Amino acid sequence: xxxxxxxxxxxxxxxxxxxxxxxxxxxxxxxxxxxxxxxxxxxxxxxxxxxxxxxxxxxxxxxxxxxxxxxxxxxxx
Length: 77
Prior knowledge:
Number of domains: 1
Distance between the termini: 29 Å
Largest sheet: none
Mean pLDDT: 77
Number of strands: 0
Strand content: under 5%
Number of helices: 4
Order of helices and strands: HHHH
Structural class: mainly alpha
Low-confidence stretches: none
């Protein structure tokens, strides 16, 4: 569960801020953070965030989101 409503957003800029301050992120903000990290060329950090978010999305059967996140992982390679 996010530490605050701000860190629960899907906005990559906010997700990047929340990562920097050490706030715990839920699955959707992790995906947003991963997108931002990929754009910054920080692949290893993006992979960590995507893997953590993917675990949740797979568990709840969010196939479309899983496919999008896996595409982001592939693009980051």
